[in-house]
Amino acid sequence: MKSKTTRRQWLANATKAALAYPVFNMSLGMISCGGGGKGGSRLVPPPNSGYTGTDDQLMDEIQRAAFDFFWTEASSTTGQIKDRALAVGGDTRDFASIASTGFGLTALCIGDKRGYGDSAKIKQRVIAALDFLANQMPNEHGFFYHFVHLETGERFNNNVEVSNIDTSILLCGILFARQYYNDPQITALANTIYQRMDWPWFLNGGTTFSMGWKPDSGFLEARWDHYCELMMIYLLAIGSPTHPVSPDTWKAWSRPPISYQGYNFIYGDSPLFVHQFSHAWFDFRNKSDEYANYFQNSIDATKAHKLFCLSLKNQFSDYSDNLWGITASDYSGGYTAWGGPPAKGPIDGTVVPCATAGSLPFVFSDCIAVLRNIRSTYGSLAWKKYGFVDAFNPLTNWYDADVIGIDQGISMLMCENQRTGMVWQVFNTAPEVQNAMSAVGFKPALR
Length: 447
Hints:
The protein is built from 16 helices and 22 strands. The strands form ten sheets. The protein has a three-stranded antiparallel sheet with strand order 3-20-19, with no helix packed on it. It has a three-stranded antiparallel sheet with strand order 9-10-11. The protein has a two-stranded antiparallel ribbon with strand order 1-2. Helix 2 crosses helix 3 (98-114) and helix 8 crosses helix 16 (431-439). It has helices at residues 7-18, 55-72, 98-114, 119-135, 164-181, 184-195, 199-203, 231-238, 277-281, 294-311, 353-357, 364-377, 379-382, 405-419, 422-427, 431-439, and strands at residues 23-25, 30-32, 41-42, 84-86, 95-97, 139-140, 143-144, 147-149, 162-163, 212-214, 218-219, 257-260, 263-266, 287-288, 329-331, 334-336, 383-384, 387-388, 392-393, 398-399, 402-404, 443-444. With 447 residues, it is an alpha+beta fold. The longest helix has 18 residues, at 55-72.
């Protein structure tokens, strides 16, 4: 029987084993573990002061705070970015994630475009990251370990896998930087990284990709064989200029349907991020392949998720029209992959801000209402130096001590796509992306 393990389940399990040591958080007086550890504090929410800025101002604040994370919580030498950090700043952990770096490369370019930092310094940071990835970072057949040491790029420990989904997120950031700068040095480095990736190797003799590889045990049994955030893997592999896989691999993974309160959509897994991550870079708007309009699918999935949260109101009184959203995140017990429909994980009334931030382009009015409400009602408890904390539970008065790079990333990129569409516009100028989309049969959508 094929495993249905998801990337975030691997993340939760892997980080528990990867981090065998706790970090004492001096600012909060509690124990916090990086990359999936629990953190938080018991505080009384402030009075509702109301958020008076415009929707665009709030998205700009989210982006500025996220840029600060990606700039500050990174190595200036290697350009690698931490998996997570204290939401108040001052983090000392050296636990980096290649997916965080991928989101971060795109975030740095957005920050350059919006004037959030010094353009010359931002470009130099991008070059440093690409040079390190191209010439020093350990890789296997061109793919990178999921979690690495911030300053050395070495595999964090012997439990960490070589990950094609996290390498794909990283590659999306690399290709975005290449297309954004159109600079000979950046282009050469980006092409070096992309062109050495041996995509057929990761098929391991099958029609779908294995989820990972370890030097001591080989390929993981679990495969990317049903709809989720996997679309980026297959499109990047099909579009490879040097080691492509057949476009037929696009047909090899399943697209199971689900129906919930009148919404019919493709279901891959319950956490909402599975409907968001590939959409952060690939522009699926007004396009369909022979199976679906994936952008509309994410709209329907987001609307169904809101109704799912509201259906839990009798159990968790905090959920309302203006307070909902669950996706893989921290909670008071650690890190978990949760969501719905159908219900999955230890749902307890926790709210995850990146769930709605990541769906802003899909259902804008409903999602921005949640973010405005959080900013207004929970003030300095839920909003810190780097923006919204990763998660919080107003029923138990638990507020996460951390932010997580990939959650900061999906929030920042989707804010930009909602505001200007810039990430879609720049990324989809890449010829490899255009070729892959054409090869798998994307055409103007009928719906």
